[in-house]
Design brief:
2 copies of one chain form a homodimer.
Chain A: H1 6-13, H2 18-25, H3 30-39, H4 42-51, H5 54-61, H6 66-75, H7 78-86, H8 90-99, H9 103-112, H10 120-123, E1 130-132, H11 137-147, E2 156-160, E3 166-171, H12 172-177, H13 184-187, E4 195-196, H14 201-210, E5 215-219, E6 225-230, H15 231-250, H16 262-288, H17 291-296, H18 299-302, H19 304-327, H20 336-366, H21 369-399, H22 410-432
Parallel strand pairs in A: 1-2, 4-5
Antiparallel strand pairs in A: 2-3, 5-6
Amino acid sequence: VDAKEADFVTSTLNGVNPADISEVIRELDAEQTKFVIDLLDVEVGAEIIVNLEEDRQSLFLENFTADELATFVDQMDSDDGVDVINELPIEKREEVIASVENEEKAGYILDLLRYEEDVAGGLMAKEMIRANLNWTIQQCIEEIRKQAENVEKIYSVYVVDNEGKLLGRVSLKKIILSEPDALVADIYEEDIVSVGTHADEEEVALTMQKYDLEALPVVNVKGKLVGRITIDDAMDVITEQAEEDRQMMTGISGDVEEDDTVWVLSKARLPWLVIGLVGGLLGAKFISLFEKDIALIPAMAFFIPLITATGGNVGIQSSSIVVQGLASYNAFEDTLLKKMLKVFFVAVVNGIILALIVFGIVIFSTSDQAMAGTVAIALFSVVLLASFMGTVTPLALDKIGINPAMASGPFITTANDLLGLTVYFMVAHFLYGF
Amino acid sequence: VDAKEADFVTSTLNGVNPADISEVIRELDAEQTKFVIDLLDVEVGAEIIVNLEEDRQSLFLENFTADELATFVDQMDSDDGVDVINELPIEKREEVIASVENEEKAGYILDLLRYEEDVAGGLMAKEMIRANLNWTIQQCIEEIRKQAENVEKIYSVYVVDNEGKLLGRVSLKKIILSEPDALVADIYEEDIVSVGTHADEEEVALTMQKYDLEALPVVNVKGKLVGRITIDDAMDVITEQAEEDRQMMTGISGDVEEDDTVWVLSKARLPWLVIGLVGGLLGAKFISLFEKDIALIPAMAFFIPLITATGGNVGIQSSSIVVQGLASYNAFEDTLLKKMLKVFFVAVVNGIILALIVFGIVIFSTSDQAMAGTVAIALFSVVLLASFMGTVTPLALDKIGINPAMASGPFITTANDLLGLTVYFMVAHFLYGF
């Protein structure tokens, strides 16, 4: 590619699956990518553009004129077309849409641009097969033939009434097995799951997973069929969500990968490290208030890591269980009070056990009763406190619309550390009677 | 349900989607569940049993006789049937399989029992439509009609030669649009993605996601078509994997949920907390070696949380990036050396920045140059060390076949804490020249 040997590239990539070409192209820069895509079929090129990682798309699209982009968008499903257009600067968007040859598609895209990217309306494609309740199977087949170019994967034919309201579906299997003159009204399945245009993307993914659907019809507030979401988009939602949660928990901002440059990797990690640093410095400041106590009894310093580490572990465990609970949309939610009571009991049980272990070990190894008592009581308090914080924080974050997985991240664990230290030194101060 | 009012249950649940009934049933115990399922159609009951969470299945299945189970298994796809049978004690397995009426299905299940649960062979179902290369479309349709009961979702007809070797596929859409006397050989797509029976379940899920497939054919070593995996199973693999990674990272053993009992929740969390506790006690023991130093300069104790927290954060970030890299099966892997070099440079950049910040702040607030130098140098060393450990540990775990996400768990972070403390006190000892 570096040598721009067009013949070699064309002959090598000819007939290769676009998904595989996409993988190779990840290693190239924007200009090289354009060079390769220009050599390929428009159809294959369109698929590769769709497969590009989101953060590379906008950079890459700059190299194409509005006309060139329009020919690619012409080959895409409307949902993918919208995603690409959303990556463009506002002025270029209109230019591209105006140049899309297929007017129906241009209309679809304009329509889809109205929705947020993370709701059902933003995930759905307008391409699908719809059949009127009064049609025969033969008419359905004619419609499929007409739309064959537009709708790559059909799965089901959706049945609507004269007003376009979604009534049910007929599977392709049933169409194959029915007589051509059978009426849709006689054979369609009325029992159909659908979502509204404003349903959250997570809800979409969970619904498709729960009912094992490969396509989910989307209806507007009046029950009119306006689009459908296919399983590949739902899968992307699930993996993105898992990825995002993991990054929240590990304190890496943005979408970084092993093969990014040193500087990109450093930048993504620094903000959280600095937050941790500030927390650590606050901790240092706080401990320094007890400087005299420590000078008198240096053993107090020994257990600092024990206290902070246990507080951190308990906090992360608690918030993780809450985050999981929030994600699973359980039908029968316990009340908040009942939830908190349970968290409290679990914390008491674990706190007592851990405190007893520590008390035993410290007494056994130092015979310093005051120290053993201090550490045990502080540890018990820290477990209670960290459980409480670990439960409340994700719930609170969720309420104000922030990803609750954030609660397992560095910011909150640092806060937990500080709280733990406070408890520890207060208990010590009290027990030793300074 | 408590009052066992059969009529009420039947009338309420009649016509409700089995996936919804499954959700309601999660709130019941094994006996109540059996009561409800006995009232429902065998077909619906079978679907509910498949939907039961894995850890409840075995408990629940004890309440049924082998004969009863066999009638349910008769209604399941072979892949689900095997999953259920795998939950039974060995003796009962044979009994159930012997009682399955559909002999073909019994044969399928026996065949599938040979595979591990986490490879392609363990995920696939034997039910699918296969067509000989020499058939006409009409013959395909006849085959679909014959198998309509067995194969719930068809997606594609797989094309095989006389030896049963997989050659390609014909989509249902194409079957609908082709003339009945067209030959399969003339219209089938040769370009087909398949996996071997021993492919890892993660590879299966990634392949289906990469190529946007809703069904993936499975072939044996000779290229013979032996089964197919549907997208719902791949989705389950992805969510389970994400869940497992999350639990590894947060130190919760086993599959716990918010609505488990206090005792179950405590038990799942205790082992990791105890590991953390032992680590903390080792840390205490270690710090106690420096008791005299601390008595002299209590300020040394102030920065303990700063050092351990930063080490922990850096370690988790590094291992998280590596784990992500391992999961994505990148085609162009950097060499190990190149990877380590990059990790090293990122660590140097971040380490220098953090060290400078800390040095500035400590000098500014205490004017204690030795202390500022100690903390800065120790912090820099800890960032380097934690990056190294965070990178090497998941790679090493992956090599010996342990889930690398474990490296972000409490065990490793505790080890990192200890390492960080060692570095800190050694540097302090050296700089202060005790």
